[in-house]
Amino acid sequence: MQVPRLYTNAVFAGYRRGQRNIYPNVAILHIDGVNMKEDTEFYIGKRCAYIYKVAVKKGSKKPAVRAIYGTVVAAHGCAGAVRARFAHNLPPKAIGENVKVFLYPSKI
């Protein structure tokens, strides 16, 4: 029996932007295997997380891994990208990094 998949990977492509303005509160994600706008409808409303490692002081019991959680809110363009809003804006160093898009909550 296979273990059920709980998430799929996405790449943080950058912030939503116009010609002159950048909106860092909205992230653009490219989800693996999603190439059309119609395919993005399944992911709208799903939770996502950017997971990163932090430096830990010696003797500290805190975990060395943290996460910023967000939600997929809309499709972006016709090539299968989506927009996501995170609890805290993603840092610029996260551009090009992996983001996990969870397959829940389910709308089915």
TrEMBL record:
Q: Where would one find coiled-coil regions in this protein?
A: none
Q: Which residues cross the membrane?
A: none
Which HAMAP family does the UniProt record give? Ribosomal_eL33
Q: Which domain of life is it from?
A: Eukaryota
Q: Which family does it belong to?
A: Belongs to the eukaryotic ribosomal protein eL33 family.
One cellular-component annotation, GO: ribosome
Keyword terms: Ribonucleoprotein, Ribosomal protein
Q: Which GO terms describe its molecular function?
A: structural constituent of ribosome
Q: What is this protein called?
A: 60S ribosomal protein L35A, putative
**Taxonomically, what lineage is the organism?**
Eukaryota, Amoebozoa, Evosea, Archamoebae, Mastigamoebida
Q: Does the keyword Ribosomal protein apply?
A: yes
UniProt entry tagged with the keyword Ribosomal protein: yes
GO annotation terms (biological process): translation
